[in-house]
Structures are given as structure tokens and as C-alpha cells.
Amino acid sequence: MCCFMSITISLSAAENKQAEKSWTDKLSFGVENRVRYEYKSDFDFDNSKDDNGDLLYNRFRLNCKIDFNEKNTFFIEGLDARVTAHDLARPAQTDQFDLHQAYLNFLDLMSLPLDIKVGRQEMKYGKGRLIAAPAWANKITAFDGGVLRFKRAGFYSDLFYGQCVPYEESRFNHSSSDVSIKGVYCGYQENKDTTQCEAYFINNINFAGSNDVKRNTFGTHLLVPLVMGLVSDLEGCYQFGDEGPKDVSAYALHADISRVFADIVWKPKLTVEYNYASGDEDSRDTKINTFVPLYQTIHDPYGVMDFFRWQNMQELACSLMLAPQRKVKIISEVHCFFLADTSDYWYTSSCGKVRSPVDDSANSYAGTETSLVAKFDLLDYVKLESGYAHFFAGSYLGDTGTSDDADWVYAQVSVKF
User: Rounded to two decimals, what is the model's pTM?
Assistant: First the structure.
């Protein structure tokens, strides 16, 4: 998407003084390089095949920010992504240095409580279950578009439009109006210690496939402080529209409750959560009941092995986070996964399908994932991270084919200035 804009800025006396500063005072640069090693074992749940192997990811980001004044800025960022695979298929996570972000940001436009951000940008709303810029994979979702935000006295409302920017390894990444989102996201929170209420409507179209997709998502999100330091996070949404000749009717739910025990050594945070996303009951009828999480966050929410996403799934999970030191975090998680409907597929975080064809007579219990992750801020600009996870195969795998357990281990270092 190409944008041509004419911008006139009236400067006050103080702003004129700032304008007299050299460009070097207005410029700032940032750089980040992240390297991650992964080893995967039996991710097809079949140990009779010699398909275990490792992956080496490298992502480099370079950005520049120009502060015209305190409220008007320009930001541009390039991203280079590489993957080396050994005994495994190379994932589609490679892209030669390309434009990731380039936007203008204006705060308090015309002295009104309005902000506007236009250009190529990352977007994230709520907890990122529907629109996010997840940074675990080499590729980070970006959109060509704009956001207009109104904010006053704890109330905020965003009108947004974005064309998704697909990664093209050998060409410049460019968006198309064939794949886009638009909508409104609004909320209210008096202060950070009070209840946060949010509501949204998102229209997503995708005319790039074999079937034209028009999917609308309406939902609400609540973050509620309770008694005894407990905090509850609740979200529910409904999707409707059409996909080719079929109507869409699907829904998803999230609920969790957590507490930080600040008076106990290592300040443990305990979280218990439940997730549900509907699946398709009958692929032969005129309705599609599969919930699709749009441009959702990945990796952390539904287990670190990325076997699931918020689509045809039911999950019970528990996590414990410890902070032995200010710069150290240890996170242990247990996730129990079920398919919401065995007439539909098991979808991975990247929308891959674990077993095909489906078997509606299979048991819905897919398996249990356990994991242990450690994070350490070695320096202000160096972060270390490592983890191990094991997936205990469930009855669904046994009913549909091989059912061997899977293992995964990784180590990662990030340097950011």
C-alpha cells in the first residue's frame, strides 16, 4: 500500500526552539539480534520415523525514530529473518532484510484527545487473542493502515484499518486489500487497580484463497480485581459471516484467575485457566462452526510446543511463575488439551492439521503438555532464555494413528540496544 500525505505543522515558540536543534538530537536508533536453537523430537507422534532434528533461528531488527517534537514522531524498522534446519523441513520463517514498520504517529491531534498512527505498523489489542504482533516466530505480523484513537477520563476507543503484510522471501513485502481487517475496539478503566471493560467488533476479509471469506467477530474482555489479591481475566466472542457458499457461526471463551503471593519468598504467581473455541460439527452442512483466531498471539497462551491455537480446542491449564531474583523468572506450566469437536481438525498454532482425515468417533482427549522455562536478564541489553517441554499423547492420537510422546528443548539469546 502506498500513502502520499501532505502535513503542515504549526510550531509554538517552544517548538521553534526545538526545531533549531540539530537532526542528531532528534534521531535515535535501535538494533536487536535474536538467536534461538530448538530441538524437536517426534512432533508427528511417531517414533518409528527418523524425523527428529534441530532448527537455528536468527532475527535481526534495525530501526530509526525521528522525534519532530514531543507529540509527532516518525518510526521506521527493517527486519531480516533466517532459519537453518537439520533433519527437519525448513519452516517458512525466512525473509531477507525487508521493511517491517514505517509509520507517522501524532498525539493530541489539533489539541484534541485524538491520536493517529498511519503507515506500516504492528497492532495488538487486549490480550492478543485475536489481533497481536507475536514475536516468538521470526516473522512478526504487521499491517499497512491506520489507527485513530480517542481517549478521555479512562475511556478509550480505536477505529482501525489494516491490510495484512505477507512475508515474501525474495521480493519486497507488500499488502493487498484482498486481506484486511477493520473495526472498533473500545474500553474503560479508571486506573490500573480497577476493573477494565472492553468491547470490540472486527471485520476480517480474505479474498486471496479459493473461497471468499467475510468473517465478523464481536466480543468483550474483562479484567477484574477480586478479593484477597485475586485477578480474573474473562473474554468471550462470537463470529458470523460467510466463507464461500457457507454461513459462519462460531464462538470462543477464555477464563483465568491468578494471584501473586508477594509476601512469600520468590513471589510466586499462580494462574488457573480455561479456553474453549468451537469446531465444525458437520463439514457437509451449510454452516461453518470453526472459530478462527484471526491474527492471534502464539506460543505462550496454549503451550510452548505450539501444538494448539484458539480453534476447535478445549483446554485446562495451570502455571506457576517464580522470581528468585529481580532479573530471573522460572515458569512451570501444565496444559490438558481436548478437541472441541472430533468432526473437525486439530489445528496447530500455525493452522497446520495434525491428523487427516478427521475421525468423529475418536476420543476428544488430545494430550497433556508440561514445560519448564527459565528467563534471565543477564544485562540491560542481553536476555537469556531456555526451556524444555514434553507432550504426553492422549487417546485421540491413539484412536487416529500413532501416539508416541513428543519432546522439545530450546535456548535463546537476545541482544537489544
Answer: 0.91
CA–CA distance from 105 to each of 108, 114, 119, 129, 402 (Å)? 10, 11, 9, 25, 52
Instruction: Return the sign of the alpha-carbon dihedral for residues 350, 356, 360, 364.
Output: negative
Which CATH code for domain 25-416? 2.40.160.100
| Pairing label, strands 365-379, 328-338 | antiparallel
State the Cα–Cα distance between residues 400 and 312, nearest whole angstrom.
Answer: 17
Residue 209: the pLDDT is: 85
Cβ proximity of 13 and 376 under 8 Å: no
From 55, 62, 138, select the one nearest 94 (Cα to Cα): 138
How many residues are recorded in the chain?
417
Extract the C-alpha cell encoding 413: 539469546
| Residue 268, all three cell numbers | 510466586
Please state, for a pLDDT cut of 70, what percent of the chain lies above it: 95
DSSP 47-111: TTS---EEEEEEEEEEEEEEESSSSEEEEEEEEEEEEEEESSPPPS--EEEEEEEEEEEESSGGG
Exposed e or buried b per residue across 309-319, where buried means at least 16 C-beta atoms within 10 angstroms of its C-beta:
bbbbbbbebeb
At residue 170, the pLDDT reads 82
User: What is the model's pLDDT at position 98?
Assistant: 96
Domain ranges of the chain: 25-416
Buried b (16+ CB within 10 A) or exposed e, 322-357: bbeeeeebbbebebbbbbbbbbbbbbbbeeeebbee
Question: β-pairing, 328-338 with 72-86?
Answer: unpaired
pLDDT digits (tens, 9 = 90+) for 18-65: 445 677 788 999 999 999 999 999 999 999 988 899 999 999 999 999
Are residues 135 and 98 in contact, defined by beta-carbon separation less than 8 angstroms? no
CB 336 within 8 A of CB 317: yes
For 244, residues 6+ apart whose C-beta sits below 8 A from its C-beta are 210, 211, 212, 213
Say yes or no to pLDDT of 371 above 80: yes
